[in-house]
Amino acid sequence: MVYINDEVENCDQILRHANEAIFTAQYDGCNTVCEYKEENTAILRRSSNLQKATTLKRYIARDQFLLYVQPIVHLNNHKKASYFEILLRGITTQGKIIQPGELIEAAEDFNLTPMLDK
What we know:
- The protein is α+β, with helices and mostly antiparallel strands.
- The protein has helices at about 10-30, 40-60, 105-110, 115; strands spanning about 65-75, 75-90, 95-100.
- A 3-stranded antiparallel beta sheet has the order 1-2-3.
- Strand 1 and strand 2 form a beta hairpin.
- The chain is elongated, with a radius of gyration of 20 Å.
């Protein structure tokens, strides 16, 4: 739900706010109505995750990732690694490394984790 009043700048802003409210309502579950408010943290988080998901899709399409190997060691025999964990990092076109925490919530929200797994 979006209120239309004198503070609204244009139709694009109304549609953008409506979209954000719809995404938030869908995320919250069935038969949910979300009222758009600038201070609504759920909408702000969802909007931020939408932007991050767009970035993540671009990284996936361009294969802009680095893989890191982290050994998993036994506490009582830490000299020998018996398993390894592969950690994924995004990398911008400028070479900046993006930590998983910056994108993982967006990947989960927008069902992009299967694409990341591949």
